[in-house]
Amino acid sequence: MDLSSAKVRTSTPATRRTVLRALMAGGLSAGLSAWPATAARAADPVGGWASFADQVRAEFKAMGLVGAAVAVVSSDRVLLTLPLGVRDLGTRAPVSPSTRFLVASTTKSMTSLLVATYVDQHRLAWDQRVVDAWPGFRAPTDELTHTLRVRDLLGMATGIDEPPALSGLHEGDPTAPQLLQSLVNLPVKAPPDTTFLYNNTVYSAGGYLPLLHSGLSGDDLTGLTGRFANEMRDRVYGPVGMTGARIADDPRGLVGDFMRGYGPDLTGANKALAYGPVGSYAPAGGTLASLDDMAAYVRMQLRHGVSVNGHRVVSTRNLAECWKPHIPVPVSPDLDPDATSSGYAMGWIHNRYRDGTSLIWHNGGIDGFTSFIGFLPQHDLGLVVLNAMNPTVTGPLFYLYVLNLLLSERFGLNDGVPARIHAQYLAALEGLRALGRRTRPTDPATTAPYLGFYEAGYRLTRDGHHLDLRLGPRTMPLAVLPDGTYAVTGGLMVENKVRLTRDSDGTPRLEVVGFETVRRTVGRS
Fold first, then answer.
1. Model pTM?
2. What digits encode the pLDDT tens for the residues 223-259?
3. d(CA 304, CA 68)
4. Could you give the angle at the alpha carbon of 433 between the alpha carbons of 432 and 439, nearest 5°?
5. What is d(CA 195, CA 351) in angstroms, rounded to the nearest whole number?
6. CB-based burial label for 59 (10 Å; 0-12, 13-18, 19+)
7. What's the CATH fold of domain 3-427?
């Protein structure tokens, strides 16, 4: 997928995994670059960060966002803290630096950090075979089972793919043991180290590996996700100084200051979204954290493994190992015109620009939230952007604007891209509205035979004239298009198409286009 099209198109599944693939291919790129041991501080031609903050505020307002938070940091201080908007359109409580956001796949770099602490202790090794670290490991082929290394599970280059619905819609379904068992059934699309394939299932297995290596088995595996959360608290969040961070997919009842997630519907209006389940996929995207937490985390990266409190979290050597890319990621000529190379590392993507500047970064997206963290080690500069906006269609465009504003104003890179991103936002918003104008309300008589429960946890329900597709906490309202298909009018999968048909035996069948097709199991009159 390519963000030059202004949105994630409905012909491609808009899951956290595919959105991230889209952004890597169309929004940013990454590449390996060595940097000096002593880095020069970023040039400051505009005098402080006031002008930058004013432009970010203006874009936040122009994009009609609800709540966001931006920080610019160096190794020794926070240069800018910028909370924006409100936590909830109902209460109008303002966003603060301690407001918790779901930060989704930026968790991956924290998971690789966790593994690096075990490598520091010589309890694991990057090039150790996974099956030697955990004899219960099974990959889709015998060859992969016996050759994949610890670093491979965190590197997106195993050649193993995953169905789009697996970690995009059903994160909350499998237990950790079921997730680990599912590895053997994943499709193999390419030889190892030849193709970038974003895979949350394999990555989660890599995150659990330290605990599996410690000897967990049998009944102990049922509590694996909880044990992983404890390990993240003890080895990552606490030592780094991320005092408000934790593994969670729904902050209600856990913390007081948290952000509600939002997304546009087909009119362009922002609507609150249910919190998306993460469950056993926590190592791939389960962190709840504030701007202060994420700023401390990026500063630890710039400090080469030493926290803002002076605590050595991880060795410089093994932290840097997490930054080294090994599989190319496509570069976008439209949104990254000055990028010369791109590659996935372990929970990070590494960009190289025409002037030799390196950007080490990762993004994240889950129902109602998008996030970005990145740092430029040569310039001792880091950026955090948290946004309570759905990852499909418009959500990622805000952090892309902020990042490219920084690159262009501070370093003369990607000039003109911020304006281009804003134009894409306007086009994406108009695309939503244009699709909405093509829809009409659903007909109760036409849809009544299809109501009921379907495989994989889907439900098709009707409340008066409102037809909804439900999956766990998610509600996906449907409207009908002229060709008889249905469009999702809001929520995580806004714009996605749904078809209602019948199998040869007459059983109602529901196709979530680009994801999966399921049969009805129990009808409802």
1. 0.92
2. 999 999 999 999 999 999 999 999 999 999 999 999 9
3. 28
4. 95
5. 18
6. buried
7. Beta-lactamase (3.40.710)
